[in-house]
User: Fold Translocase from Lentibacter algarum.
Amino acid sequence: MPDYKRYGIAGATLATILLTGQIMQITSATNHASAADVQAMPLPVAISDIKLTAADEATLVTASLDSSLATSQGTQQPLTSETCKVTLSGTPIAAALVDLELSAPCAPNERVVIHHNGMMFSDVTDGTGMFSTTVPALNETAVFIASLAGGAGAVANVTVEEIFSYDRAVVQMQGNSGIGLHAREFGAEYGDPRHIWSERPGDIVDGVTGHGGFLIQLGDSSLENPLVAQIYTFPSGMAKEIGDIALSVDIEITASNCDKDIEAQTLQTSRGEKIAVQTLDMSMPTCDAVGDFLMLKKLVNDMKVAFN
Assistant:
């Protein structure tokens, strides 16, 4: 666990320097966009680049077999468009979450990128071409797009009525950049039980019952150039207590990211309203600072919880 005393001191000092704009640029906090207008961060796979291949129109090219080999092995059964049909289904569940299930029988062990209202993360199908995960929805009429590395894809549309009871904040990044989303609920300090982050993500049950928030991380960080998203959720519409939730994007300076340029993006929405987007583009400190931390509070807005 990080040394939070040093974390706060080093983070506050460096963040003050960074936020003056000397070595980073952040878009205006008032830069709001509708769900349809949200643009994803400039990562290798952009939503505009997706080419969805309709399964019933797919043309499959099979290699011809030597006649003698074909005779000895019997009749070759060609793959059909129906055999290789790619489907994506979504089921709304508690806490405004959606269970996604991708079926791509002809794409086993293949990289897939999931897109949802500007949020994106990458993972891999299993040996049968299946992939499943649970995604926090960002709006009521939720559209999910699965884009496979081979060019095929599928879309799922899901109505998420519970979104109006939840606030959400997202930080997404490419690679293992040391970036993390932190939520300190109702005066909690770093390391306290109400400090929610990737190593202490909270409990979805608390989000369902109104007792606290939780964090979900999406994306396989072991992939080459992974796309990873962390999403913090708080049940603002049914909260059992009132007060402020301090949010920050914190960056650990490591041997992998020191003296390099990094990018990240935050998305934030309250009860299904417009999504606020901010982009981080900064140069990390030199490698002499490995082991220190940066605390960037201006990338996400604190949540204010009041009884309805």
User: Anything to note?
Assistant: The chain has two domains: 4-39+163-305, 47-58+85-161. Residues 4-39+163-305 form one domain. Residues 1-77 have pLDDT under 50 and may be disordered. The two ends are 37 Å apart (CA to CA).
